Amino acid sequence: RIDASFRAAEDLLDALLDVSRLDAGSYRPEIAPFALADLFDSLRQQFAVVAEQRGLTLHVVPSSLSVRSDAQLLRRIVANFLSNALRYTRAGGVVLGVRRRGDQVRIEVWDSGPGIADEQQARIFGEFQRLERPSPWGEKGLGLGLSICDRLAGILEHPLGLRSHVGRGSCFSISVPRTESVSRKRAPAMVRPGGEQLPLTVLCLDNDETILEGMRALLGRWGVDCRIAIDVETALDILMTTHVDLILADYHLGDNTDGLEALKFLGTKIVPMPPAAMVTADGSSELKHRARTLGYPLLHKPVRPAALRALLVALAKRTGTHAA
């Protein structure tokens, strides 16, 4: 129950951060063409485990089409559709597919759940609106997910759709501009958290001792040798005496120092510099652009263990360090 409460609190914080960013106009779409197959593969990897645990089928219909959108924001929307479908479906399954509609494609998520009554369909995309029927799996939605989807879709100018019949299921959809075919990205597969050990050495740089201890406990469960540094000077001492495979640096380090500046300083002292990633609660487009320009992946607080482990697994594959 404590674990479930923490996860619910984390989901609520994530949602409220999204709402605040939307209210502040912080989201700046980065529109570019990409292959739908990349999006579909990523979503299949994320939700297949949940479907399997609940005895549901998750069928992702392959697609060779390409679209023009912000890949991350579009993924957030479709992932929310899938999450809701798996939350309220007791038996049967969920289907993710796409239909051509002129110069648009309509990404659809179908489920065999309880369906949504007409009077609820009119307000389901409002804030803090939840289905009256409880989840058969004991999950409780926050009533913010579809509202955030609606606002993100408005930013992207992608129309949302909903068709539903009580007792037969629902279909949530989003229409996206189609574009000429583009090559797929070959990203490393996601790995279930808590699996095989990762023989890596990671340096965590943060000015909060509690966060450092938490990171050391989490990484230690995966077999990672976690070194911690509360300031740049301590981090430099560790790097000069220890081989480090990855640096995880917090963005806000206090004393008017940010993580990017800290990594720049360390790079002038340590050659070659280990790979690094930023950990931050700052969702601004400016920081995203700075980090991308410097080649640093971003992990947003609260950091999800699955996302962190996926980063470590990808690093292990690139460096030839195989999990035991």
Summarize the structure.
This protein is α/β, with parallel strands linked by helices. The chain is built from 10 helices and 12 strands. Strands 1, 2, 3, 4, 5, 6 and 7 form a 7-stranded mixed β-sheet that branches. The protein has a 5-stranded parallel β-sheet with strand order 9-8-10-11-12, with helices on both faces.
Q: How would you characterize the largest beta sheet?
A: 7 strands, mixed
Q: Overall mean pLDDT score?
A: 84
| Amount of helix | 40-55%
Catalogue the unreliable spans: 187-194
Shape: globular
Distance between the termini: 32 Å
Give the class from helix and strand content and strand pairing: alpha/beta
What Rg is obtained from the alpha carbons, in whole angstroms? Answer: 21 Å
| Beta strands, count | 12
From N to C, what is the helix and strand string?
HEHEEHEEHHEEEHEHEHEHEH
User: How large is the share of residues in beta strands?
Assistant: 15-25%
Task: Please work out how many helical segments DSSP would assign.
Answer: 10
